[in-house]
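Lecture 7 notes: from sequence to structure.

We start with a single chain of 242 residues. Read the sequence below before looking at the structure.
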Amino acid sequence: MSKIFIVFFMISSILFANEADEIIKKLDQNMRGENVSMKLTMKIISMGHERTMKMQSWSEGTKKSFTKILYPPKDKGITFLSLDNQMWQYVPKIERTIKIPASMMLQNWMGSDITNDDVVKQSSVVEDYNAKILKKEGKLVTLELTPKEDAAVVWGKIVSLIDTETYTSKKDIFYDEDMKEVRIFLYKDVKKYGKYYIPTYWKIQPIEKKDNYTEMLLEDVKYDTEISAQYFKKSALKRFSR
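Now the structure, written as tokens:
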């Protein structure tokens, strides 16, 4: 009987692992598509002060992304390019291109509660993390994502609450290497674009700064359209800053 139980447990574990992998693949595909472009409005609340930024982004797969600041005027034209886990920034006021070192991937981006790593967005949950189901409640599944052995990622683990009706995340909790909670992403207002679903409202809440948070509104989302390859060259930093 004990041997039967062990075999049953092993089969169940394998099936659960396969299910977790399928869920995370569908989630990742929803976020990326073949490519995606969008406009974003970001509201940053910090120490009682509020400021708003607007930007446009283009991305393709897990290796290429380009972001341009549209507002406010003092930041307009600042651009960011990420290619193959490397990131550059162009600042028009000083006409200078700056490479962001790997050591700064966890630094806050433009004073917000997202990081340089979030903007680079090179970490693919499919390629870099092992997924395990922690809980299932109807259409809601809680997954634990732990880094694969050789993955170049900055988080110790991520715990995600996923809606398997749309394969979108409702909440992500990020942990550092010491397994301490660092921040929470909350998502809502899921919209469908063609065959893809994506939450169009994001809230990022740092754990240790309860009065600080960042909100992001995704607008004009376009999947699987023709994006010029020129956006993903270093020359794009200055060329498209105008």
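The first helix runs from residue 2 to 32. Keep this in mind for problem set 3.
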